[in-house]
User: Which sequence fits this backbone?
């Protein structure tokens, strides 16, 4: 067949380069926003701490009063918010992409709820703490994923059935969590809210390390499959024809995404709708020519960081972050359900 | 007869308890176009799924140039054998260029960057399908016929020797059906790509295929050149339809005209006699 003209090749190369630059630019802006957001939440709170003081405190200097506020109260909150948000964002977009449906997010289909139930069970019934809680949360998350898959299996799994079964399971698990919380009457309302809607109240900096390791390990593994994941968007058959090993890819994506969500949930509880919202917001910002994993992680981090700040200081009363993100996410959920009734939306 | 490209031997396959293919034997000649036809639920799509390794047969094997495809590494197979399902999903908001570029997936490794060979393959595929001008458009903005050309361009960018297509003309207007089949014939003639496709429309299959494979009840009823395969008897036994088969005045290939319950007048008048060049087959 006739050779493509050279100018066509260079034209396509140009388009591709422009697209990459566009993507990099938006991710850089997101990253800058995140950095600015972290610094702002370190500076602003009940009291104002100037940026120079914040930087000196971060550098290790002792500043009476402000030192405690920044290092012990604000910093752990900011760091944990960013890590939790990134984990949720990655876990969410991985599921949404693999199942080709924005409703298939782990917080809608009960995986975060399952992890949360697992964490509460570990704390209340098994009296565990620390990494052991994360382990139980992950086991519960994986168990729920497996259960959804088994229940929706009928000569193959279709997205719609899987989502409905997931929503049903989420409701059941939520009531189990509530029941477990009621059995432990010494718990405060704040703690109960953490496990029901998600909160980063009272987190410690040492909780950030396992989160960071999980993010690097599972997030890295997920990122290494980004091309397979993108190919899956064109349907399983076509992806298989293009050389994607379906079973292997699915197992890796499910395990990494569940682990990310479960690690985050074990610290903050199931922060409502962050996993669900991050991917679609990232898609709106970036366009859909390329992987959304990194951008969704950045959006997730921003959502939790700013949602928590808003819940603490911008609203008339103090709300945990899950309430704020819940308010943001619910209208989008309604919109999707209404739109899905008209067209088959994919993401 | 040219060398054999794909060879299916004693295939038995199905879904779960339900067996759909019973002892299917088929050889696909290299560099030719093979069309699989048959009534609904005769197993033609299932056969294509086994040939493309989407479905593992419970018995028998498929050889691609002598190698059993169910034992080849996935990526390796995808470099040699392309498959276009009946209704592929165009991800929302994806551009034509990006979609066609996905065809390079089997040629890319975990750490391998987009190469100039990839770029040339994509540009070539877009030029061959007359889509270069539409490269930046989104899939949602294209017509059904254009979209089908994009999918074929994607399969072209994959640069496989064999291309399997499941009903590439469904849901298209007749002009776009011809357009797509002409395009596939171009690929076959100019690049020597071996093409195997399931087609619904019997006359188009007879017109465009070098080899026609008629399937019935999970078996190959007959396979060979359309002139030998498309007969009134075959149409009766495979489709359960009374018909006349005449010579297509445009291509000289056989053409089937269904009789149906309201075709009595014309059968009585023996339409064949009106065309001197067109003796009745069978």
Assistant:
């Amino acid at each position: 067949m006739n050779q493509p003209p050279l100018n066509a090749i260079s034209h396509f190369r140009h388009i591709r380069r422009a697209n990459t630059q566009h993507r990099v630019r938006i991710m850089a802006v997101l990253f800058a926003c995140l950095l600015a957001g972290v610094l702002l939440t370190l500076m602003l709170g009940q009291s104002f701490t100037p940026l120079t003081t914040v930087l000196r405190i971060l550098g290790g200097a002792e500043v009476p009063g402000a030192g405690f506020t920044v290092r012990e109260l604000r910093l752990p909150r900011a760091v944990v918010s960013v890590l939790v948000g990134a984990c949720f964002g990655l876990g969410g977009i991985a599921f949404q992409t693999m199942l080709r449906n924005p409703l298939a997010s782990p917080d809608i289909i009960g995986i975060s709820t399952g992890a949360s139930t697992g964490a509460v069970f570990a704390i209340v019934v098994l009296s565990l703490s620390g990494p052991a809680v994360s382990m139980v949360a992950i086991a519960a998350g994986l168990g729920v994923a497996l259960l959804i898959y088994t229940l929706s299996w009928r000569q193959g799994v279709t997205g719609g059935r899987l989502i409905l079964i997931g929503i049903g399971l989420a409701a059941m698990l939520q009531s189990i969590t509530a029941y477990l919380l009621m059995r432990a009457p010494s718990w405060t309302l704040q703690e109960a809210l953490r496990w029901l809607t998600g909160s980063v109240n009272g987190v410690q900096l040492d909780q950030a390390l396992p989160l960071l390791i999980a993010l690097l390990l599972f997030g890295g593994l997920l990122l290494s499959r980004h091309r397979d994941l993108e190919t899956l968007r064109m349907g399983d058959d076509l992806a298989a024809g293009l050389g994607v090993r379906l079973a292997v890819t699915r197992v890796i994506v499910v395990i990494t995404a569940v682990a990310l969500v479960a690690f985050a949930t074990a610290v903050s509880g199931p922060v409502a709708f962050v996993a669900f919202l991050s991917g679609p917001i990232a898609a709106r910002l970036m366009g859909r020519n390329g992987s959304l994993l990194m951008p969704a992680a950045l959006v997730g981090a921003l959502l939790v960081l700013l949602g928590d700040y808003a819940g603490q200081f911008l609203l008339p009363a103090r709300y945990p972050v899950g309430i704020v993100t819940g308010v943001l996410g619910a209208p989008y959920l309604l919109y999707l359900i209404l739109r899905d009734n008209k067209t088959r939306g994919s993401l | 007869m040219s060398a054999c490209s794909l060879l299916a031997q004693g295939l038995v396959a199905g879904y779960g308890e339900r067996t759909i293919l019973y002892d299917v034997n088929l050889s696909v000649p290299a560099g030719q176009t093979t069309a699989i036809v048959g009534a609904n639920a005769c197993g033609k799509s299932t056969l294509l799924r086994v040939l493309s390794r989407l479905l593992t047969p419970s018995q028998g094997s498929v050889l691609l140039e002598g190698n059993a495809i169910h034992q080849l590494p996935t990526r390796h197979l995808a470099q040699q054998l392309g498959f276009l399902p009946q209704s592929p999903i165009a991800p929302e908001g994806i551009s034509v260029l990006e979609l066609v570029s996905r065809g390079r997936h089997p040629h890319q490794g975990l750490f391998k960057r987009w190469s100039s060979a990839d770029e040339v393959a994509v540009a070539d595929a877009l030029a061959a399908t007359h889509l270069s001008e539409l490269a930046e458009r989104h899939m949602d903005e294209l017509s059904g016929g254009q979209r089908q050309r994009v999918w074929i361009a994607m399969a072209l960018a994959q640069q496989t020797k064999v291309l399997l297509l499941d009903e590439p003309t469904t849901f298209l207007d007749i002009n776009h059906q011809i357009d797509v089949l002409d395009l596939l014939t171009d690929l076959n003639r100019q690049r020597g790509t071996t093409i195997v496709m399931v087609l619904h429309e019997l006359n188009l299959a007879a017109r465009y295929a070098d080899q026609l494979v008629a399937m019935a009840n999970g078996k190959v009823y007959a396979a060979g050149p359309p002139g030998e395969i498309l007969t009134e008897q075959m149409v009766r036994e495979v489709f359960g339809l009374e018909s006349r088969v005449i010579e297509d005045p445009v291509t000289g290939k056989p053409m089937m005209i269904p009789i149906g319950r309201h075709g009595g007048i014309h059968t009585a008048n023996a339409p064949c006699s009106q065309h001197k060049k067109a003796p009745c087959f069978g």
Observations:
- The domain at 2-90+157-256 of chain B is CATH 3.40.50.300 (Rossmann fold).
- Residues 78 and 199 of chain B are 23 Å apart (CA to CA).
